[in-house]
């Protein structure tokens, strides 16, 4: 008894000591204002918080439910252990930490452009340093419970302090703060309670850039209001340099990739400022964000159009990236590729990035593209050891449209014939084994994969159709259709 008491005390002290390592709790949006945290370009913590608030439900019992599964690596969440130095130590059974925000992780491409975009267009030591950390407990009845949320950051790259998080910039985020952000998502104007006096033009500028993401412009306006110029015209205008203006212009540029009906990459651009069109610009396709500017795959002039599209002959692959370049003319005779101006995010299909659960089994199905072909992944929880036996007669069908009947597939494969995926980052998803199948079917908008438990019945999962806009993008739908013959 005595021994246990001392041990208990020791543990209490340990956890108190580490609680102190956290700087404090952020209880409201106003608290975000007070800390110099993630306020400057290209920091992305405010976008991560907004994204999180938009993808959770907090119920009346203060329980958080997620639209995604952090333990499966969704959106690039990765396992962060249970005793990182900057966070309270977790005792066995009290959960594990999962971290979000590293743009080098495989799943992070599933995050929307508004979170990732700026990280492709900045080179500084502050790039890619912000993280959101969830404390996740798994329970029998519930898939998982999140009871703590933190925002934190790595040390700056030029500080040479390794890859740990910086405790001096680690804060707990209360559910109240997340709820406040959720409320903003349904608002058009800054609610009075924030007592923010923001210049109309400044707000309009934020809305021009972030207006397509509900609530984000308002969140930024409230948090950043003290750093934005209060008066427009006169002095404030004078300090805005030419290059500030150009940077602001550039943030309106949108460079996207979509799928042609032949599995090729289709470049779509919009928001190119007139200043650039007058000089001449082109869109250039690259394998990914790391490929150097000489190794382009395809290119096209934008032909003086603010917005437009170009169908390349390059098979679609995850990671492809469009960059906007100036065109350099040589005595009006020929042109070469000039300075780079802006980069799009690496290719992904966000709605499809999140696997759909196979009903009543610890497994899920994901549709993706590889070399222009439709492919599927099965995520099988390691604890589901009998999966090969259970799925002995199960198969995955590939359909050209969601309204094809069960036997109207283009191609199919047995689930047990999928091969185990080898990827360097899979230790980030320690609870799952991942199996893939490359089909021979050409990817195009509308393609869907479905999981059938038995030869001729029992559909147990269907993915969202490829690139089809769904109204509720963040809520992957599931289907329990039994498509009996
Ligand atoms: C993209 O590449 C640029 C230039 O190499 C780099 O600075 C930036 O951090 C990269 N962004 C991402 C998200 O990988
Ligand atoms: C480009 O691809 C899209 C989608 O497949 C198609 O609708 C469009 O007609 C194509 N444009 C050209 C010029 O081939
Ligand atoms: C399912 O199991 C049976 C024997 O139990 C075997 O003959 C059959 O080949 C298996 N099916 C698949 C798709 O592996
Ligand atoms: C259903 O599929 C057919 C082709 O099989 C297609 O012509 C039709 O547009 C589809 N309907 C919807 C609502 O997508
Ligand atoms: C699928 O295709 C990729 C590249 O095309 C290849 O590296 C991988 O080995 C293939 N996987 C299987 C299971 O055939």
TrEMBL record:
The lineage of its organism: Eukaryota, Metazoa, Chordata, Craniata, Vertebrata. Keywords: Signal. This is Uncharacterized protein LOC120056124 isoform X2. The keyword Signal applies. Residues 290-310 are annotated as: Disordered. The gene is LOC120056124. Residues 1-21 form the signal peptide.
């Amino acid at each position: 008894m005595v021994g246990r008491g001392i041990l208990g005390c020791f543990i209490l002290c340990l956890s108190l000591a580490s609680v102190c390592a956290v700087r404090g709790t952020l209880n409201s949006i106003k608290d975000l204002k007070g800390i110099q945290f993630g306020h400057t370009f290209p920091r992305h913590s405010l976008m991560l918080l907004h994204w999180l608030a938009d993808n959770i439900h907090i119920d009346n019992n203060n329980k958080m439910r997620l639209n995604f599964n952090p333990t499966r690596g969704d959106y690039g969440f990765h396992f962060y252990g249970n005793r990182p130095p900057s966070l309270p130590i977790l005792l066995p059974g009290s959960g594990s930490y999962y971290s979000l925000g590293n743009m080098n992780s495989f799943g992070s491409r599933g995050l929307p452009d508004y979170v990732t975009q700026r990280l492709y267009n900045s080179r500084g030591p502050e790039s890619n340093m912000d993280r959101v950390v969830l404390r996740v407990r798994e329970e029998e009845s519930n898939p998982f419970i999140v009871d703590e949320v933190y925002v934190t950051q790595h040390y700056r790259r030029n500080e040479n302090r390794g890859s740990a998080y910086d405790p001096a910039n680690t804060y707990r985020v209360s559910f109240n703060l997340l709820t406040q952000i959720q409320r903003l998502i349904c608002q058009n104007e800054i609610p009075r309670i924030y007592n923010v006096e923001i210049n109309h033009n400044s707000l309009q500028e934020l809305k021009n850039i972030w207006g397509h993401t509900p609530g984000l412009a308002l969140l930024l306006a409230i948090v950043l209001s003290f750093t934005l110029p209060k008066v427009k015209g006169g002095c404030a205008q004078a300090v805005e340099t030419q290059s500030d203006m150009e940077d602001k212009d550039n943030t309106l540029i949108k460079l996207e990739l979509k799928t042609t009906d032949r599995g090729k990459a289709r470049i779509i651009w919009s928001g190119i400022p007139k200043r650039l069109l007058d000089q001449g610009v082109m869109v250039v396709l690259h394998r990914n964000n790391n490929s150097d500017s000489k190794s382009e795959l395809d290119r096209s002039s934008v032909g003086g159009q603010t917005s437009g599209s170009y169908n390349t002959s390059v098979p679609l692959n995850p990671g492809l990236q469009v960059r906007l370049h100036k065109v350099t003319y040589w005595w009006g005779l020929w042109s070469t590729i000039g300075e780079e101006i802006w980069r799009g995010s690496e290719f992904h299909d966000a709605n499809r990035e999140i696997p759909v659960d196979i009903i009543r089994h610890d497994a899920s199905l994901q549709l993706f593209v590889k070399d222009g072909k439709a492919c599927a992944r099965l995520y099988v929880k390691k604890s589901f050891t009998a999966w090969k036996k259970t799925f002995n007669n199960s198969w995955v069908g590939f359909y050209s449209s969601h309204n094809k009947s069960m036997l109207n597939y283009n191609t199919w494969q047995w689930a047990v014939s999928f091969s185990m995926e080898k990827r360097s980052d899979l230790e980030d998803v320690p609870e799952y084994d991942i199996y893939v199948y490359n089909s021979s079917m050409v990817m195009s908008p509308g393609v869907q994969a479905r999981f059938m438990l038995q030869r001729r019945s029992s559909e147990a999962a269907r993915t969202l159709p490829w690139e089809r806009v769904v109204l509720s993008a963040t809520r992957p739908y599931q289907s329990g259709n039994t498509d009996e013959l």
